From TrEMBL, chains A, B:
It comes from Gossypium hirsutum (Upland cotton). Residues 160-338 form the D-isomer specific 2-hydroxyacid dehydrogenase NAD-binding domain. This is Formate dehydrogenase, mitochondrial. It is found in: Mitochondrion. It catalyses: formate + NAD(+) = CO2 + NADH.
């Protein structure tokens, strides 16, 4: 702890010295008015339907009265793509950019280079892979998330998707709205979750919450990660550690992806790796779309090797109208939604406010929130 | 136990005496070939897609080789309605009728009167309300189910539906297949399950399994039933007993119906009772469609008083093309499917075989399987 304080002081000293070292930008706000830009999805007619709907452009995380009363400028937009977009106009002089994984403002090395005043990149939610983290680190920027804000939401959502796939919900719903009734057309590939083997790839906070929620379903639970989970939790959930991913894959009836998108995990599930899975496997992926090889997933759904695929993440986002996952068989996809329930919005809005307050006061953030700090990436992104 | 044996012997004696008392039919099979009729849903092209698909006409519960090798006649059909249907032809001389809630053969008083040889009505699954139980009891028939065969299936399915409604899955899926992407249109009414109040009306076997599966979601769990559940289970799940149903209703964010259809529960959730629920309530009903007033549910979904309704049960079944639940807003309905997963089919096929074996041998069934025995209805149907 003392070591960390010393290190922080040293970093501040370097940053404040205006040297041309790695850390050319200030870790904490200098006094005076800041220009803060938020990029969120637009709610339009939905905004007025729920007073707690703060995660959209119109809601602006509920921060406007507070930020403006403090003398700061607060620009909010959903217009984030192309050279003439609203975001691009503010890149040269913004101090803080608040973005969200649900409508990602892609912060490229080029944008970082242009953003001479930029100090702080805050993710309203979890997952900062829309930021070029290496470029951000090299530019001495701070990148932080509201760690923990989405974990319950995503774990719940994953369990919902597991059940939707295993129990074959979607064809039944289709029959209802098309005036049909054909129990056999659903039942021939509907199963109970009980007794099936479920493996999570990644057992961080979300993976652990999922294992706890799966426990009463009497499944055979497996997990793969770089390290073993706490023995107490292993005992509580009955989950078994699988050191070798490729050895785990053929054992699983259901595979859940619970790891961040990094250079190592990008495209990790390609044709070859999918071929190692059991024929008829069900896959749930609420992590990131780009962890999968898009076409390999679509092909395996068409061949039946993957018997069902569900998730809320795509690459890119918004998914274009011709994204193959929209039209592949046995998909139960949605737009990127799991971490932006009303409950989650209230959590990440509070988390962003807390970090802005600390930033203005020159205080550190909760340690687990940092994704890039003083030129270093958080362990899960290395 | 001794008392029960005496009673059973007495009943057998009465039944065998051929008296014209209440019990005019034999409780157990007389020697010789029996005519057994099964009414299931038809699989058509789906039958060959899964070797374990036994719950359909083509699969015939996997009983044909065994029954025919024993010299019995086994007729299987899905044609169950109207005076010229296949079932009607066999009513006069069948000994055993196997039916299923997923494609209910309605066994009316009139059919029972015509069925002079009928002794045994077996339900492949759970829920025998498609049989006129009073008429069956008066005719001295035995009605029995494969108790326990569906409980895990239905509890899992209920939890899936709770999550689908709370997290607002269906509009997201619609966006995907229609080429749309509008996170706000989903998020403004998507919530986490955590922290919500969930009440089950009925805490029998399914209700208890649901409470256990809900436990890790950190909800506020309530239950209403005629009697309290085991104190150990109450402690394990944290569920609180609500003696007064009408006092429980306004407390619940989510209500799950877990009681059988009886003369007392038919139409129980009418306009007045729905009005007692919280505005914005979510309802899951995998019990029986006729427990609800069909139009009152549709109206409350239209007004928004009910914010979501999901279930797999309808009245009648198959649901006609113009059934209002197919088209009401915020529904997440399917045909009757939850208890007829492949796993459940294998369980109830085994259960039906076991009861037929006992019937041929003149042995009693497992006590919990009886719905009507010796003129008496099982407690849950009284």
């Amino acid at each position: 702890m003392a070591m960390k304080q010393v290190a922080n002081s040293a970093i501040k000293a370097i940053a404040n010295s205006g040297s041309s070292s790695l850390l050319t930008r200030q870790l904490h706000a200098s006094p005076g008015s800041k220009k803060i830009v938020g990029v969120f999805y637009k709610a339009n007619e939905y905004f007025t339907k729920n007073p707690n709907f703060v995660g959209c452009v119109e809601g602006a995380l509920g921060l406007r009265p507070w930020l403006e009363s403090q003398g700061h400028q607060y620009i909010v937009t959903d217009d984030k793509e192309g050279p003439d977009c609203e975001l691009e106009k503010h890149i040269p002089d913004l101090h803080v950019l608040i973005s969200t994984p649900f409508h990602p403002a892609y912060v490229t090395a080029e944008r970082i280079k242009k953003a001479k005043n930029l100090q702080l990149l805050l993710t309203a939610g979890i997952g900062s892979d829309h930021v070029d983290l290496k470029a951000a680190a090299e530019a001495g920027l701070t990148v932080a998330e509201v760690t923990g804000s989405n974990v319950v939401s995503v774990a719940e959502d994953e369990l919902m998707r597991i059940l939707i796939l295993v129990r074959n919900f979607v064809p039944g719903y289709h029959q209802v709205i098309t005036g049909d009734w054909n129990v056999a057309g659903i039942a021939y590939r509907a199963y109970d979750l009980e007794g099936k083997t479920v493996g999570t790839i990644g057992a961080g906070r979300i993976g652990k919450l999922l294992l706890q929620r799966l426990k009463p379903f009497n499944c055979n639970l497996l997990y793969h990660d770089r390290v073993k989970i706490d023995p107490e939790l292993e005992k509580q959930t009955g989950a078994k550690f699988e050191e070798d991913l490729d050895a785990m894959l053929p054992k699983c009836d259901i595979i859940v992806i619970n790891m961040p998108l990094t250079e190592k995990t990008r495209g990790m599930f390609d044709k070859d790796r999918i071929a190692k899975m059991k024929k008829g496997v069900l896959i749930v992926n609420n992590a990131r779309g780009a962890i999968m090889d898009t076409q390999a997933v679509a092909d395996a759904c068409s061949s039946g090797h993957i018997a069902g695929y569900s998730g809320d993440v795509w690459y890119p986002q918004p998914a274009p109208k011709d994204h193959p996952w929209r039209y592949m068989p046995n998909q139960a996809m949605t737009p990127h939604i799991s971490g932006t329930t009303i409950d989650a919005q209230l959590r990440y809005a509070a988390g962003v406010k807390d970090m802005l307050e600390r930033y203005f006061k020159g205080e550190d953030f909760p340690e687990q929130n940092y994704i890039v700090k003083a030129g270093e990436l958080a362990p899960q992104y290395r």
